[in-house]
Amino acid sequence: MTDAVLVVDFGAQYAQLIARRVREARVYSEIVPTTITAADVASKAPKGIILSGGPSSVYADGAPTLDPAIFSLGIPILGICYGAQLLAQATGGTVAATGRGGYGRTAMTLTAASPITVDFPEVSDVWMSHGDSITALGEGFVAMASSDDAPVAVFGNENLRCYGVQFHPEVAHSEYGQALLERFLHDVCDLPGTWTHASIIETQVAAIRAQVGDAKVLCALSGGVDSAVAAALVHKAIGDQLTCVFVDTGLMRRGEGDQIEATFTKHFNVELIHVRAADRYFAALAGVTDPERKRKIIGELFIRIFEEVARDLGAGTGGDGPKFLVQGTLYPDVIESGSGHAANIKSHHNVGGLPEDLDFDLVEPLRSLFKDEVRAVGEELGLPGEIVWRQPFPGPGLGVRIIGEVTQERAEILANADAVVLEEIRRAGLYRDLWQSFAILPAVRTVGVMGDGRTYAYPIVIRAVTSDDAMTADWARLPYDLLERIANRLINEVDGVNRVALDITSKPPGTIEWE
Ligand code: XMP
Predict the structure, then answer these.
(1) 395 belongs to a structural domain
(2) C-alpha to C-alpha distance for 223 and 272, rounded to whole angstroms
(3) Of 388, 423, 455, which one is at a domain's C-terminal end?
(4) Ligand 1 centroid vs 395 CA: distance in angstroms?
(5) What atom in ligand 1 is closest to the CA of residue 435?
(6) Does the pLDDT of residue 343 top 70, yes or no?
(7) Residues 6 or more apart in contact with residue 163 via CB below 8 angstroms
(8) 63-92 b/e with 16+ CB inside 10 Å = b?
(9) What percent of the chain has pLDDT over 70?
(10) What is the pTM of this model?
(11) 291 and 341 belong to one structural domain
(12) Which residue puts its alpha carbon closest to atom 21 of ligand 1?
């Protein structure tokens, strides 16, 4: 691993944010657990180490520590909050409990020059955690800034190239935080910042070629950004050794299948097998209303169809059929795997659970990337904005947005309604600001009146949420005139709809999807 920085994870949100900020400074970062040994670190040969903040006090029972030998490897270290306290302790300083908790904006004053604070004015606002305080520093370390609450807000030892900051440079509220990280990376660690989207593509293309040689590779396209970027990347690396499979379940957004086909066959010239399987899905889902059963049926049928295609292509026969399977696994999935939620959500999406006898090896070209990097790589590869910026869509598709039995008629009504919602959201310029915006069809009918006649048709529920990571979400405050336009169009243009409602539930307690 050359030109990389390790971020030691003392608290997941903090570490992920730091890793992203490091990458914004065009330096490759990798998150590692606190249990990493000095030998492991040495074998990775990083150019710098960042110790993240975390919720613990260094004095608490079971507070995470770090192999002390890591501090003597001669690798530059930046400790942040909890990480700064560990650094202070490990290098002969002391940390005292102040008994005060909480976080907040604080004015910090520079008291001595340091290479990491050269861009700071004498006084600046930082986002500080008022936990424990560093009260004394080890030999060779000097204090470089202070605040009312923290006599040692920045400290360091220029010979050892080790620094600690008692605030969070990674959060946007810390005025010169990114500048501090960049000084540490570019100047202290001597990392020039060459991790760009073009370089990611170059590295991945080489890695994919080395991994698969001249073997054939299969990729399931879901319509989402991750599988599309993964496929485009693999195609760039190995051209017609790649075959993509797109299974149209009849539960996709309107026009999605055609767009995938147009993009991948016409634009990229990829070998694409488009399986039109709507009838099989509706037959399998007939009479089923339980959400978990629906998900299971949809997931299993997908796997069965994919398996049929793979076998037709000669997979698992020992001949020259496909031996590799592309998966759009992202870095947060890698970090969080094992935490259940993420792994579960992804299981269908990523074609988990293929029969063992097919015996695919995985190609995961997005394994080290965050979502925004995946989008940037997609743009760089020339994928259309509509795919690159597409809002997330659940693997089981409209199947979990029809509440009750899934039928072809209901799927068509919902796909039409969803298209209206998205069209108006896009027209209002809100599409990229919203995490998701879509329509739901609860399979109950209500009475209405239209013209001279009584109607008896379905309601459509509008769901629009803002979120950073889908773990929590807030309902979006869509403008009333936009809502009115959507409602009018739904009732006038979508046959089978006579009522419109708005879901104003946040997550928690609601989930984003209804099933
Ligand atoms: P919930 O409804 O749990 O959803 O708040 C969180 C996020 O995950 C998406 N989602 C799925 N994605 N396969 C997927 O690939 C699924 O089975 C699935 N279920 C939910 C959902 O759209 C939201 O972004």
Answers:
(1) no
(2) 13
(3) 388
(4) 8
(5) 24
(6) no
(7) 77, 78, 79, 114, 116, 154, 155, 156, 157, 184, 188
(8) bbebbeebbebebbbbbbbbbbbbbbbbbe
(9) 94
(10) 0.87
(11) yes
(12) 394
DSSP string, 493-514: HSTTEEEEEE----BTTS-SS-
- Tell me the per-residue pLDDT of 348-372, one tens digit each, with 9 for 90 and over: 344 445 666 778 999 999 999 999 9
Task: Determine the residue type at 473.
Answer: A
Of 127, 133, 119, nearest to 181 by C-alpha is 119
User: Cα(514) to centroid of ligand 1, in Å?
Assistant: 10
What number does the ligand 1 atom closest to the CA of 507 have? Answer: 5
What six digits make up the tokens of 510?
């609601």
Strands 446-450 and 453-466: antiparallel
Whether 336 is covered by a domain: the verdict is: yes
The whole-angstrom separation of Cα 422 and Cα 430 is: 10
Q: Is residue 396 part of a domain?
A: no
What values do phi and psi take at 488, rounded to 5? -60, -45
Residues 78 and 57 in one domain: yes
* The last residue of a domain, from among 364, 388, 412: 388
For the chain, the distance separating the N- and C-terminal CA atoms, rounded to the nearest angstrom, is 43
Is 168 among the residues known to form the active site? yes
Is 81 an annotated catalytic residue?
Answer: yes
Residue 139 annotated as catalytic? no
Q: 489 with 368, same domain?
A: no
Residue 290 structural domain: 197-388
Whether residues 61 and 86 fall in one domain: yes
